Every structure is written in C-alpha cells, then in structure tokens.
Model the fold of this input.
Amino acid sequence: METTILTLMLIVIFMTWLKLTFLKIWQIVLIATVCAFSIVFSWPYAIQQSRNEISEWLSNQKLMLDTSLVLTLEVLWQMAYCMLSGKLLYDGKVRQRTVWIYRMLRFFPGILVFPVLFYLQIQIMYLFSGIDFSTISWCLAALVLLAVVGGSYLLRWLLPQKALRLELLFLSSALVLILGIVVTVNGTTNFKGSDPIEWKALLAFIGLTTLCGGIGAFLYSKRKVKHKF
Done:
C-alpha cells in the first residue's frame, strides 16, 4: 500500500514537471515560488503530525474516497488540457473561446503536488530530527524552488517535441487515475459471482449501439460529401 502511494506521488511530481514545460519562464518561477512558500508556511502544521497519524490517514477509507474525488477532477483537468492542446497543435484556427479555455487549463499546474510536498516535508523533518524546524523548512523550500524550475527545463531539454510531452502527460494522468482507484479500494472489494446473463437486454444494447453507430456513420459520410463539393 505504501509503495503504491509513493509511486503515485512520484508520478504526480513528474506530471507537474511535464505541465510546467508548456509555460513561460515567469509562470514557472511563480508556481515554483508558490510551492516553496507552501512549505515555509505549513511547517507549524507538519511538526504536529506523527507517522502513526499519517498511517491512519492512509487507512481511512472515507478520507481516501474524498481524496480520490480531488484526484479524479485534477486528472480530468490535465487530460482536457492534453486533448485541447492537440486540437490547437494540429487543427490550426480555432475559436477565441477555445483559446481562452486552453490558457486557463495550461496555467493550472494542479493541486496534488501540495499534499506531496507536505508529506515530503514531514519525512524530511523526521530524517533530520534535532535541527530547527524552521531552518529545515526554509532549506527545503529553496531546494523545491530550484527543483521545480530545474526539473521542468531538464524535461524540456530531454523532450523537445511538444507532442511527445503531451502524450506523456496524458498517459501519466491515466496512470495516476488507475493508481488512485487502487489506493482507494485498498483491498475492500470482494469477488462475487455474477448473475445469469440477461440476453434480451444484451441484444437490445447491441442493437441500439449498432443503430446509433450507423446513424453517426451516415451523417459523417453525408457531411464529408457536402464539404467535398
């Protein structure tokens, strides 16, 4: 369970770096500064957390369900950005409203990185016990500031193709969604034998799907012929 959560956190950090590769330098610095100051201002709360309490959080089914809702919304946000970016990248001219939606989706880096940084801060404080907590927080904030900016530029240098970075961001978002489901379930799902197949309902579903698909194909071919002439 803890291994799955750590893997999820690493992918969230990778997604944040990937998303920042599409931004300008001042936007990257601004987001990195926000991440750094979140560590500086959260250390009074971080020192109040114990490892046992964190384990209780991770085993709390209701809390994990609430977290999965936030995770799902962020994943859908990032996937929408990827699909809209692909449309702008290959379709060319689009409406002004689409451009505004694209800009809003692009500038939002995600909120999952902040719980990850909070967890990292708690672990660092336990690792360097005996050192002043504020000193640890300021040093960690400086490292995060450099890591966010440097990591995004390193990924942009390693992956100069924008289309490739979009694909990786989309696949990483899908992986985060899958791992989020695994973490949420947490072994509470039991296998239960299925009821007999409702053949009439199945045939009705197949017939309806075929009918809708046929209507869609007909309308598409009709529109294609119309644009051709």
About this structure: The mean pLDDT is 80. The chain has two domains: 2-185, 198-229.
